Amino acid sequence: MKAGPRESRAYQRLHAKYRPQTPLLRNVTVAFLVGGTICAFGQLVYDFYLGLGFTPAEAAGPLAGTMIFLGAFLTGLGVYDWIGDFGGMGAALPITGFANAIVAPAMESKREGLVQGLGTKMFEVAGPVLVYGLTVSFVVGAVRYIIRAY
Amino acid sequence: MPYLTAFITGGLLCVAAQLVVNLTQLTPAHTMVLFVSAGAVISGLGWYDVLIEFGGAGATVPLTGFGHALVNGILDGLNQKGLMGLFTGGITGAAMGITVAVIAGYAAAVLFDPKG
């Protein structure tokens, strides 16, 4: 029996009601809140360095360093993985998540050795980030150099 | 309200990253690479400073800010050292981040053990 349009629509409504909800809205909301909170905290750290007399350009390095240190430390304590499970990209995209991506796999593979285990796994995610970051920024810089020269 | 604009700017960048992960087949690692690269390109176009002007740490803390730090370092290097700066400026711009990532990352991985 072929389902008429009415049955078909009723089925679709039923299907929409019972299928597992794609958690898109939840994920996006949580990413906004977690990422926003980490960045607002970063602003606090940034203002702290400005208060010490750093210029905005000088404070960028210490800000990144402080956030990375905290991300690494909280990953060691097991706290950041919890934030990551909850916050998704809201925890992964801030530079604290970059630190988490270094420490978490390194800690796991410590038993395989301090060089081949820990030393290589530190860069499982951070490696590609550095490779593409450096390569793309080199190309961007080269283009700017050529534009300026001619 | 620097804290509010930092919250909004950083939050929206994370929303963009979350949408990439949820709506495409890209993994979080791919998305991190994509955002660093995007930050470098936007910085090269001269637009990233506008975002920092508005969002402060909300623009510098997400990984796009790391891409900006690399390009910013290269542009500073080009100004100060000419073509040599193209090769030295990127690492210089991101020096503190990279060094702390390696040192603190190594220390944390050695000192702590995985939970659970």
Could you explain how this protein is built, in words?
- By secondary structure, chain A is mainly α.
- Chain A has a domain of 102 residues.
- Helices cover 83% and strands 0% of the residues of chain A.
- Chain A contains eight helices and no strands.
- The longest helix of chain A has 28 residues.
- The model of chain A has no long low-confidence stretch (mean pLDDT 92).
- With 116 residues, chain B is mainly α.
- Chain B has one domain.
- In chain B, 84% of the residues lie in helices and 0% in strands.
- Chain B is built from seven helices and no strands.
- In chain B, α2 runs parallel beside α5 and α5 packs antiparallel against α6.
- The radius of gyration of chain B is 16 Å and the shape is globular.
- The chains are: A mainly alpha (150), B mainly alpha (116).
Cα separation of the termini of chain A:
73 Å
The protein's oligomeric status is heterodimer
Largest interface: A-B, 77 and 77 residues
Which blocks of ≥5 consecutive residues of chain A have pLDDT under 50? none
Would you tell me the overall average pLDDT of chain B? Answer: 96
Largest sheet properties of chain B: none
- For the secondary structure, the number of strands of chain A is 0
* DSSP summary: helix tally of chain B: 7
Percent of residues in helices of chain A: over 70%
Poorly predicted runs of chain B: none
Look at the helices and sheets of chain A and give the structural class.
mainly alpha
Rg of chain B from C-alpha positions?
16 Å
| Beta content of chain B | under 5%
Number of helices of chain A: 8
Kindly give the count of domains of chain B: 1
What would you report as the Rg of chain A, rounded to the nearest angstrom? 23 Å
Q: Report the count of strand segments of chain B.
A: 0
